[in-house]
């Protein structure tokens, strides 16, 4: 069962209490898992048990997503705010400088944690922030369309669609290369998570000018990209390698934007190898 923890964060109007929901499994060196925009910690469910066999795994709902609180009024959903919140969360759960793996928005946050030397290693799966302006507009437009669809469909329709491979494809093929592999229950839960994400629009707004431009040289970095990523196109991985020349760049054959579901064994191995 996921846990919930409250802790204090700094905001423009002074210290405030927030709470975040997380799932923790396993033993070993700590590994923090960060999902993408509109998702929740359960995005990592396909790889959690494999990772937990070798790591103390903490999969967290980001602020304003899943079951975690949104940021207090006046706090922007940008890197300069969310990264310290994640650092404070780690302190609250008793973890110092974990390894970190992130997908999409979570990958960008993982790289920023690495740039600020708050983690031991970084594995970024299709991280945001390496797009051209046209690619960013395309991705943001696609995400907005997914959000509108999730909010417009009645729950019984979502449940009915999730029961068939064709319906799961209609709901999730933008982020999964193999949507039929996702369970009906998971598809319903993540569609409702996208629908209820209080931080969605503010996170997109904060991302309009984001480009990750700095090398990360103080910790090992792995960048991995699905060859069938339809949201952040795989050529962005080449740009990431140019920005981070010391990083290990890994192809994920046959995987989409959220690769943990498409090839759990491969993704788990990439994360474990990157967090040694």
From TrEMBL:
One MF term in the entry's GO annotations: hydrolase activity
Record keywords, A-Z: Hydrolase
Domain AB hydrolase-1 positions: 31-269
Domain of life: Bacteria
Name the record gives this protein: Alpha/beta fold hydrolase
Species in which this protein is naturally found: Streptomyces wedmorensis
């Amino acid at each position: 069962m996921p846990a919930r923890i409250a802790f204090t964060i700094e905001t423009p109007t002074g210290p405030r209490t927030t709470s975040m929901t997380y799932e923790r499994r396993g033993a070993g060196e700590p590994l923090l898992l960060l999902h993408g925009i509109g998702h929740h910690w359960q995005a990592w469910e396909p790889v959690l048990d494999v990772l937990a066999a070798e790591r103390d795994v903490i999969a967290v709902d980001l602020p304003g997503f899943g079951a975690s609180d949104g940021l207090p009024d006046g706090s922007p959903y940008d890197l300069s705010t969310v990264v310290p919140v994640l650092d404070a969360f780690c302190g609250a759960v008793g973890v110092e400088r974990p390894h970190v793996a992130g997908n999409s928005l979570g990958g960008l946050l993982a790289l920023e944690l690495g740039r600020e030397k708050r983690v031991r290693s970084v594995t970024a799966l299709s991280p945001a922030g390496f797009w051209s302006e046209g690619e960013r507009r395309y991705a943001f437009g696609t995400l907005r369309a997914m959000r509108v669809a999730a909010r417009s469909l009645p729950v019984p329709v979502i449940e009915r669609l999730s029961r068939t491979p064709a319906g799961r494809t209609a709901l999730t093929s933008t982020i999964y290369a193999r949507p039929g592999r996702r369970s009906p229950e998971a598809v319903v839960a993540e569609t409702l998570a996208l629908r209820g994400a209080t931080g969605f629009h503010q996170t997109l707004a904060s991302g309009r000018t984001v480009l990750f431009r700095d090398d990360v040289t103080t910790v090992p970095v792995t960048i991995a990209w699905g060859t069938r990523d339809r949201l952040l196109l795989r050529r962005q991985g080449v740009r990431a390698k140019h920005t981070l020349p010391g990083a290990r760049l890994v192809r994920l054959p046959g995987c989409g934007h959220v690769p943990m579901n498409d090839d759990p064994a491969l993704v788990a191995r990439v994360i474990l190898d990157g967090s040694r």
